[in-house]
Amino acid sequence: MKPTTDPRVDAYIENSAAFARPILRHWRELVHQACPAVVETTKWGMPFFTHHGILCYMAAFTAHGRFGFWHQGMKAELGPLRDRLHRITRPADLPDDHSLFRLFKAAVKLNEGAKPARPGPTAGKKTAPRPPADLAAALRQNPAANATFAKFSPSHRREYIAWITDAKRPETRERRLAATLAQLAGGRPRHWKYQGR
Asked: What is the mean pLDDT of the segment spanning 180-193?
């Protein structure tokens, strides 16, 4: 089966920093080997791979690459590899091909086994997530940030909430909270840097 590629992914790789190109190409190649039916696309300016929903993604920054899986069930599969995949600076930083292949196969299995949600009385409605106490308190003190957060869609709010609550150390959480307020005060969504890239 010929891989279903997207020219926007080719362009993304070519426009990435030199160190990142071989890493991105390797990840892409392994995804297609593990799931020949995978389809490439871009979301938020980054390459994504889909198969029965979003399977995984890759991104390149100034000094590191980031790779991740979409299905919540992959957290248990990844274990300590999750943090490792969030900061790749050279090909040797990637887990070995056998481990990555196993992860891709696990992600495919999870996506293929996902059952569609049953429609209920709230089907189609996106409920606004509740911010954690520290974010709620900070928003009350910052009218501009609060106004932006209030008008954002539930998905945009969830991105900020997840970023803050995923912090493992208090100092990291404080830094993310401060960055969140600054970006919200400027009217920016969480991933504003990748929009229009």
From this structure: 83
Burial class (CB in 10 A: 0-12, 13-18, 19+), 66: middle
pLDDT in tens, 8-37: 999 999 999 999 999 999 999 999 999 999
Domain count within the chain:
2
Tokens of 14: 């070519």
If you search the block for the tokens 């100092």, which residue do you land on? Answer: 171
pLDDT score recorded for residue 195:
52
How far apart, in whole angstroms, are the C-alpha atoms of residue 81 and residue 62? 22
**pTM for this structure?**
0.58
b/e map 138-171, b = 16+ CB within 10 Å:
bbeebeebbebbeebeeebbbbbbebbeeeeeee
Question: Do 98 and 67 sit in the same domain of this protein?
Answer: yes
Cα 151 to Cα 57: distance, rounded to the nearest angstrom: 28
CA distance 71 to 74: 6
Which of 45-54, 89-98, 109-118, 124-133 tops mean pLDDT?
A: 45-54
Identify the domain boundary among 85, 113, 141.
113
